[in-house]
Write a structure and sequence with these properties.
This protein has six helices and seven strands; from the N terminus they run ααβαβαββαβαββ. The protein is globular and about 40 Å long. It has a seven-stranded mixed sheet with strand order 3-2-1-4-5-7-6. The chain is an alpha/beta fold.
Length: 209
């Protein structure tokens, strides 16, 4: 597999990754747009966090960050998600794209244990943008990344929680080096949605342990 060397080419490849086949409201499943995923992974690559590294995508959904990392030269990219439908589709997509350095595991992230070094973690967890019941789920993912002792973490959060998160990261030994800002589109896919589309302001915190 030839490594991708241009950001636009990465975005074009990621456009072939479909949305969640059967989105489940209790998992707050929203597909990360290819333009956002390619931008973040390209930035991570530029910062030395992808090439030759062990990459983990927690709550990977259909695998966009794991696949993108594999396409950008990761040593191995591993996606973990509790949803069997998403994992099945992620495996199908990676096979269709001939990506051979990626692996997908069905597991609750809280139950997942890793037997080798974790260099970089990507995660776009439920962060309660639409349902208060999901509020705070993102911290469970942050705590798992800390448990895995990753070198670098890229984590999505609601922009409105930035001040709280800066303090939370500091209190838990994470050093925030970069903050990436995106407008994240939320399509009307669940019964409780009242708008056809809504854009939510999110941040991605890059932090080192």
């Amino acid at each position: 597999m030839k490594k991708i060397t241009r950001k636009k080419h990465l975005e074009m490849r990621l456009q072939s990754i479909p949305s969640h086949p059967k989105p489940k409201v209790n998992l707050e499943q929203y597909t990360t747009p290819s333009i956002i995923a390619s931008d973040l992974v390209w930035n991570a690559f530029s910062l030395g966090d992808i090439d030759g590294k062990n990459i983990f995508d927690l709550g990977c959904g259909t695998g966009i960050f794991a696949i993108a990392s594999a396409l950008m030269g990761a040593k191995i990219a591993v996606g973990i998600d509790v949803d069997e439908d998403s994992i099945d589709l992620a495996n199908e997509v990676s096979n269709n794209l001939n990506v051979d350095n990626v692996k997908f595991i069905q597991s609750d992230i809280c139950d997942f244990n890793c037997g080798f070094d974790v260099n970089t973690v990507f995660q776009n967890p439920p962060f309660g943008s639409q349902r208060k019941a999901d509020s705070g789920q993102d911290l469970k993912f942050v705590n798992k990344a800390i448990e895995l002792e990753c070198d670098v973490l890229y984590s999505f959060h609601m922009a409105s929680t930035e001040e709280f998160l800066i303090n939370y990261y500091a209190d838990n030994g994470l050093d925030i080096t970069h903050i990436f800002r995106y407008s994240f589109p939320i399509p009307k896919i669940y019964d409780f949605h009242t708008r056809d589309n809504q854009n939510v302001n999110v941040i991605v915190l890059r932090a080192t342990l």
